[in-house]
Amino acid sequence: MADGAYPTLQRMLFSVAYRMLGSVAEAEDIVQEAFVRFYALDADRVRDIESVPAYLTAVVTRLSIDYLRSARARREQYVGTWLPEPLVTEHSVVDGARYVEQLDSLSIAFLVVLERLSPLERAVFLLHDIFDYSYPEISRMIGKSATYCRQLAVRARRHVQASGRRRTKISQNEQERLARRFFAAVGDGDVAALVDLLVMDAAAYGDGGGQAPAARIPICGRDRVAAFLASLGRTARRLGVRYRVTEINRQPGALFFNRSGQLLSVAILDIGENGVGAVYSIVNPDKLQHLGPVGDVRELLRKGVPS
């Protein structure tokens, strides 16, 4: 493998692993392990590999399946709502050029739906529907027949399609404009402005993982979501919390910091033509560490003064 191919391959493999796992740290570890295994092969074995990208994708997929199987019990016991680790995509190249058009497959809502699939269903669905591998290719990657892989993909699609309606797309500029208005309304504690921006069946999801304060069940309905977020916004302003609007998982979002510049939480918006349909808030510090220094939300609330 030529040295110049490594960065492109690394990005492509990370895009597979991250969608499989919903974890930045675990995806990076699995990609690294795949390269370690590849470079450990003897020269004759390397010459027998028809496609290095396909070989490495197979290794990453199998490692991801193994990880998901071992992690299932832990995720079933997770405190509150489980959300994937956020990926700031504003200034980064997450995917190879072949996958840039598959932006929806990075959205928080899509990754949450994938969590409901079995590891094999998730692998086959992603490899076929997102990364364009054929069933015979997937069959060789995961060690199952092509017919069985086709059946897994059909089951996975049914789960994905049954997960809820898709919101009509609006332009990126319009999404950014609405996001800035939305986060300004949150910061101002402006219930009326939030009601105006939210759709009727809006929902707010929080992931604290039992380590930071967050709503353990979704908050549903425009008025309840608006009141909840306005209350959070007033508290955050009183404590000196600042935010920066950015792109997260190819969606409008914001990073929230204390006065010391430590990250407290990440919020991502699901926006359609009628307004904001969902708000995803990740406060679990374990899921924010890859983004920089993380602050202690509980300590900030306990002190009740800006930090």
Describe the 3D structure.
By secondary structure, the chain is of the alpha+beta class. The chain is built from twelve helices and six strands. It has a six-stranded mixed beta sheet. Strand 3 and strand 4 form a beta hairpin. The protein is globular. It comes from Acidothermus cellulolyticus (strain ATCC 43068 / DSM 8971 / 11B). One of its GO terms (molecular function) is sigma factor activity.
Summarize, please.
This protein is α+β, with helices and mostly antiparallel strands and 307 residues long. 50% of the residues lie in helices and 14% in strands. The chain has helices at 6-21, 24-39, 43-47, 52-76, 108-114, 119-130, 135-142, 146-161, 172-188, 191-197, 222-238, 297-303, and strands at 198-207, 219-220, 242-248, 251-257, 263-272, 275-282.
Number of separate helices: 12
Sheet-strand content, in percent, reads 5-15%
What is the radius of gyration computed over CA atoms, rounded to a whole number of angstroms? 21 Å
In one word, what is the shape?
globular
* Overall mean pLDDT: 91
Cross-sheet strand order for the largest sheet: 2-1-6-5-4-3
Domain RNA polymerase sigma-70 region: 8-72
Pfam family, one: Sigma70_r4_2
Protein name: RNA polymerase, sigma-24 subunit, RpoE
Domain RNA polymerase sigma factor 70 region 4 type: 110-159
Topology:
Elements: H1 6-21, H2 24-39, H3 43-47, H4 52-76, H5 108-114, H6 119-130, H7 135-142, H8 146-161, H9 172-188, H10 191-197, E1 198-207, E2 219-220, H11 222-238, E3 242-248, E4 251-257, E5 263-272, E6 275-282, H12 297-303
Parallel strand pairs: 1-6
Antiparallel strand pairs: 1-2, 3-4, 4-5, 5-6
